[in-house]
Amino acid sequence: MRYALVTGATSGLGREIAIRLSESGWFVFACGRNEKALEEIEATTYCRPLKMDVSDQESINAAYDEVCKETNHLNAIINFSGIQQMGSLIEGDIKIIEQSLDVNLLGMVRVNKTFFPLVKQCNGRIINCSSECGWMTPQPFNGSYTLSKYAVEAYNDSLRRELMFLDIPVIKIQPGSFKTAMHGKTLDSFDKLMNSTNLYRDVLERMKGMMLIELKMANDPKALIDAVMAAANDPKPRQKYRVKNSPILGIIETMHPVAVDSLYKRFLKSELVGKVMDKINL
Q1: Which of 145, 150, 155, 241 is the catalytic position?
Q2: What is the pLDDT of residues 163-174, one digit of tens each?
């Protein structure tokens, strides 16, 4: 029997990944904080739900003890816990940055370190969810999320180069935008930012148009789930899987940083965003 531990399994992509794995014959420890969502997973799949908060080491230790009652090994740890909050690095509450790092980076570090003995037992693998934001040019007002994902990239690559000496693959997933409940939360945090800013109201009103365009272009989650399944099942997995990264941001990535700055400044100070929104019926 192959065993996997999936974090962030109570909603969105993490939940879909846990279900797909269990349907394909894996025994899945589906971890998250939402008890009602965990009960729903238990009722509809072959997953073993575990309440676990990746920001709380005691909670992780308790989950580890529960896993050890079932098995002495894990073939895969799949880290999909994550939060995204829009905010200003100057005006915003520093707690937004702290929370992003605590969940998106340190939560991953805690889980991998705690459960590593079970992975080592069977030369399993570790799969870490990064983002297109982890390697692309940072966008304004998404700094807390972006810096956490840049940190995930560095952590993942450093860990891979440690564990390669033990023949344990460490794989990163770099997804673009997908249709999940996180979109609604992102819009909510953006609206809070707009309502609280004293410096950037006009810029943010135009930037919201850009964000709505990107959300309208969001992809079917199936492509990402297929990539994670490949990372979990392939005998020789790739080091990274880039899945449906934004073509617009991809073009920006090829430009000189000075040109990118100029583009953002001119675009977000013009009426062009509104005209584009009208054309695509946003």
Answers
A1: 145
A2: 999 999 999 999
